[in-house]
Amino acid sequence: MRLDGKVALVTGASAGIGAAVAERLAEAGAQVVVHGRDEARTATVAQRVGGVPVLGDLAVPGVAAEVAEAAHAVHGRIDVLVPNAGLGWSGPFAEMRADEIDQLVAVDLLAPLQLVRCVLPELVQRGSGHIALVGSIAGRTAVAGEAVYAATKAALDVFAESLRLEIRGSGVTVSLTIPGVVDTGFFSARGRPYDRKRPRPVPATDVARALVDGITNDRAEIWIPGWLRVAPAVRALAPGLYRRLSARFGEQVRPR
């Protein structure tokens, strides 16, 4: 898909992967609508990419539809949707509050589904467009201490595949980018910084480059880094071995 002149909505674009994706899309010639919660940071990114800011807290019911409507009003259409906004939480599941579960599921799973629901019908009617979902290696392999986050990403993974089959032949394409550890503020925001030596975090710009390349080349799945494909393959082919290795080398989370 050629991006020159296309209109792209990127959520969670005030920082991290979202900001890097907005910049990359702008470099490719797209007109970017930059979504975020923080007014100042969102405006800064929008100015940097020559785009338009749209504000909204996607954890609040109904706001995803409002964001989609506001973004659509900017140029009268949306050609590319990147529902990137996400939250993290780290710690034993038994210590997670009910409202924390609700917020994580709302932002990481329900908001992308609602955004796609709002944008997809017009894309199908026009016979062109792209939905670029952002998953995580946690959704393929599971991570101790991030059970709910991993569950939302696993659900998004299956949603991407199901949607791809459902709209096959419509002219609208769907991609799922599956990053590993990314060097952003995500880990400090989740309540515990990333403190493992391996795998080393990759820059957000690398993820953005891979995601946008996936859009332009109509790739169904984009892994960053590519070697991450090994882990889910081992899990599928040798589940017993995978669980033993996970127990030995997986991220350990102790009660706080």
Notes on the structure:
- The protein has 256 residues and is α/β, with parallel strands linked by helices.
- The protein has a single domain, classed as NAD(P)-binding Rossmann-like Domain (Rossmann fold, 3-Layer(aba) Sandwich).
- Helix content is 49%, strand content 15%.
- The protein has helices spanning 16-27, 39-49, 63-75, 98-126, 138-141, 147-166, 186-189, 204-216, 230-237, 239-249; strands at residues 7-10, 31-36, 52-55, 80-82, 129-134, 172-179, 182-183, 202-203, 221-224.
- The chain has a seven-stranded parallel sheet with strand order 3-2-1-4-5-6-9, sandwiched between helices.
- Residues 252-256 have low confidence and may be disordered.
Unreliable stretches covering 5 or more consecutive residues: 252-256
Q: Which bin fits the share of residues in helices?
A: 40-55%
Our estimate of the beta-strand percent is: 15-25%
| Sheet with most strands | 7 strands, parallel
State the CATH class: Alpha Beta
- Number of H/I helices: 10
The tally of beta strands, per DSSP, is 9
Structural class: alpha/beta
Q: What general form does the structure show?
A: globular
Q: Strands across the major sheet, in which order?
A: 3-2-1-4-5-6-9
Mean pLDDT: 88
How many domains in all? 1
CATH architecture: 3-Layer(aba) Sandwich
Per the CATH scheme, the topology name is Rossmann fold
Radius of gyration: 18 Å
Full CATH superfamily name:
NAD(P)-binding Rossmann-like Domain
Distance between the termini: 48 Å
